[in-house]
Amino acid sequence: MGAPPAGAGPGDVPAAADPSSGLPLLSLALASMMAEVQAHSGGVYLLAADEPVLEMAVTAGLPRTFVAPWERVGLSSPIPVAEAVRERRLVWVGGEEDMARRYPRIAVVLPYAFALAALPVATADTVYGAAYVTWPGAHPTVLSDRERESLTAACERLAVRLERAARENRVPRTEPDLLAAPSGMAGTLGTVEAARMVGRLPYGLASLDLHGRVAFANAAAAELLGVHADDLLGTQPWVSVPWLNDPMYEDRYRAALISQHVTSFVALRPPGDWLSFRMYPSTTGLTTRISRARAVAEMVGAAPRADAAPSPRLVTISQVLSLTGALTEAVGVQDVVQLVADEVAPAVGSQALVVLGSRSGRLHVLGQRGYEDPRIVERFDGLPLAERTPGTHVLNTGVPAFFESRQQLERLYPDRNETPDGFAAWAYLPLIASGRPVGTCVLAYAEPHAFPADERAVLTSLGGLIAQALERALLYDAKNQLAHGLQAALLPHSLAPPPGIEAAARYLPAMHGMEIGGDFYDLVPTRPLAAAVIGDVQGHNVTAAGLMGQIRTGVRAFTSVGQTPAEVMRSTNRLLIDSGADLFASCLYLRLDPERGRAVMARAGHPPPLLRRPDGRVRVLDLAGGPLLGIDAEATYPTTEVSLAPGSVLALYTDGLVESPGVDIEDALVDLGELLSESGDQPLDKLADTLVRHSAAAQERVDDVAVLLLRAEADH
Prior knowledge:
Layout: H1 25-37, E1 41-47, E2 53-60, E3 72-74, H2 80-87, E4 91-93, H3 96-102, H4 104-107, E5 114-122, E6 127-136, H5 145-167, H6 185-189, H7 192-199, E7 204-209, E8 214-217, H8 219-225, H9 229-232, H10 237-240, H11 247-259, E9 263-269, E10 273-282, E11 285-292, H12 293-299, H13 317-329, H14 333-348, E12 352-359, E13 362-369, H15 375-378, H16 390-397, E14 401-403, H17 406-412, E15 425-433, E16 436-445, H18 453-490, E17 501-508, E18 518-524, E19 530-537, H19 542-560, H20 565-578, E20 585-593, E21 598-604, E22 610-612, E23 618-620, E24 639-643, E25 649-653, H21 665-679, H22 684-694, H23 696-700, E26 705-712
Antiparallel strand pairs: 1-2, 1-6, 2-3, 4-5, 5-6, 7-8, 7-11, 9-10, 10-11, 12-13, 12-16, 14-15, 15-16, 17-26, 18-19, 19-20, 20-21, 21-24, 22-23, 22-25, 25-26
Helix pairs in contact: 1-5, 3-18, 13-14, 14-18, 18-19, 19-20, 21-22
């Protein structure tokens, strides 16, 4: 080979690593990067060409299945590699607790002790992707300057080579992952006699590769597992041994490889033999020692209980996926509280919970479950955040607190014994979202409860998932409260019908969105003739609601100055067009004349009203009308006079009462008419409730619903 080109530095990758050579550029760069900082796993992502997504191109050190949930990562995701690209900086996660606090979605799937660094692979002008490396849990919680400089330089070199490849129209591709080839136990021992010695050991010994496949098992291991040695080789124990088919045992293998810590567990071999498994990891796989649990217990001076059970993984991956999906669907704060009670508390063995927040410098109880006497929890509502309690401390600091017994809690908080709640252990989890505490979740246990490090990490991670849902829920509840207040302010607080007319109205918001919309109704008690109006402005938002308020005010004003129904509709149409809102509205307006037993109506694209006669017959009033308001400034709106005999009921409504996906509008009108016919003799308020309650469309409520009922009193 010739001399390196002038100006080449000692850290440059040789020309053979260039894509033009056909060698795996990404794999070589990753392997070099890991070797420089003595990391034990890593990966390289490339930025997709047509979407803001990072796609995994190569991994090293551990099976790709360990990081399968993050094969594709959106740039907006709360994931270290995505954050490294977004902020163009190195992201350091110093260990299990740091991961649980900042990236709960990762920690809850990989609740193991390891450190991680993620960096952008980018030049000054272009981002090509990202890289990450991990270290076992024994790595210091701080990244050294040498490691930082080595990783940064390695990613910069890789970016330069990717830039060169782009100039030459050579697109980097996914490369084979870098895993050490599995080797049998006999090969690692070096001699045949050594292998025979292992075969004569009184305890089981097995070698697993990085994929968890058995590469070697001595006779004692096969006997203890109850499976022939030939049936074990090349398989994963939790697959080939039926009674090891539990996610917890595979989880222990993952924990050993990722953390590089010796890991152990106890498993029951039916019908009653307890076996102890101890895993010794390395960067090429792990060695497992298998023995009877009784012997192990005697060595440490404690015999196992007959009713002992293996310690299961606190939360399985399937539970995490279920919880994450459910939290995504949670709408309000009470939805989140109920979800935590239904999903989280049972999974972690908790018997009660409280969710706390803060408002105006005071503690606020957002919800609780499991306390027989709610007053025990309520006494903390309104407590100043300056008070020294575990709830306020966790909320102020964002640091979790675990109390394994009542004595431990009362030793730190002596005043706590004045408010006994009947529980014996507590986990106080900070709910941190968008970098700030939004609340605290308190999990209470009926019996004293130890919180080992891995359980604390999982609980902290779950707190992060709950916090994200709670942040959304708090925002939703605030918007919802604002929406309800705005809607209530825009609709009439009461109806004042003229003599001879009885009136009742109902408004229901859509079940999705901000629960605010453009449906409206009003009764204008002008003299000598009163007017009624109902309408629906397009949309379900603050703009629609605001425009609805303008229309309602305009109708009142045009009615008060004595305009006819046709003129009121034309004026309202021009008002809507002049507002420049680019929204349409349907409207039905009528002038009531109870003395003469009639009503004059004008319609603008609104559903036809129903008229129930005193004898119970119902007909749809097919009124003449004009287009929707807001379309044509020159539109006219013809009027129709309708007889309103004593005892008659006019039912005015918006389309949300009758329109439902998959239901024909004609059929819905027929059903509404039959319901009005059967129930029309009820008091008007009760009739309004009946129409809303029994309408299939109103129950689904994909749209707002407004109903205005007018009855001509029989004594007029």
